[in-house]
Write a structure and sequence with these properties.
The protein is mainly alpha-helical. It has one domain. It has 7 helices and 2 strands.
Length: 175
Amino acid sequence: MIERKLVCSHVAHIMQLMYFMLPAYLANMTPPFVRFWKGWNRPISRRWLGDHKTVVGFISGIIVALAVVFLQSKDNWRHVLVPYAQWPMLGLAFGFGAMSGDSLKSFFKRLCKIAPGQPWIPMDQLDFVVGALILVSPWAHVTWLEVLVILVISFAGDIAINHLSYALGIRSTKW
């Protein structure tokens, strides 16, 4: 009986950590959907980031993170990992952190002469997570062990989501 309560407690805590990271997860998932945008959607920098990192994709990731944190600020299942009353700053930190982490990884990937679409494990899976965690850290009340749990779960989850997106035709690569 005690073991079951302990397992349920750990599962609940992992769910709390994933809820905390939800703005970054959804921000990172947004840019592939705006590639279908028929209007102006220029690359941020063809030379340094490639054609697939666009202004609209970057901005849409930030907007989605802001929206998610706003909704979390209205939710009763917030817990105490961040002060959701400061949702605008948290949304910007999650969104800009996720999008910047992904862009910075693309920059280094180009420097290392790794072609777009080629896997760069674990950077492809954790770039946006690390970026978001760095920028949200002034408000976050997470331990190093919780950060490690976030990284491990995010790594596995990112691989699963990207493979599913590839199978559904949303992404052109599995990475």
